Amino acid sequence: MLRGPGATCKCGWHDPLPGTRRERAESYALHLAEARAERLRSCRDCKLRKDLKWMSAKPGLCKSCSSARTRAWRDANPDEWERHRRRSYLKQKYGITPEQYDEILAAQGGVCAICGDPPADSRGYRMHVDHCHSTGRVRGILCGPCNRGLGNFADNPTRLLAAVDYLHR
Fold first, then answer.
1. Which of 25, 52, 62, 128 could form a disulfide with 147 if both were Cys (CB 3.0 to 4.6 A apart)?
2. How much is the pTM?
3. pLDDT digits 0-9 by tens, 11-58
4. Among 86, 163, 160, which Cα is nearest to 129's?
5. What is the distance between the alpha carbons of residues 44 and 59, in angstroms, rounded to a whole number?
């Protein structure tokens, strides 16, 4: 609500001074309705008028219709979706492409960089990307047990050497 004559809305609208308090309040209410109407857009799928905050980055679609389209495409194209998901994951998490992943694995001879075992997961999982947690630099591709082992030792060489000494005793 406006506070006194001559009040200004944060959008720049200015309250006209003449008129009663009721007229100024009605003028402001009309301004708010017009401002809200300017923010409304129609979704081309569901045909509902929605505020801009509910519209997606895809032109003309609300977020719920955009999500529904994405789900339908994902269900119709599972192989393409998996390629897209893997590419996005590797890029976001490690800063590498699937091609770079394949190059690193090929440079290791297609086996784990630590134990030398081939990827032998019957569920179809790929080998893990090992990276330095402080710098983010990718060190190599590891099998699950080796990757978990490094993680359990907190990537600490002193702990790993102590474990080696322990095993030799």
1. 128
2. 0.61
3. 666 666 666 767 767 777 776 667 666 667 788 888 887 777 777 777
4. 86
5. 9
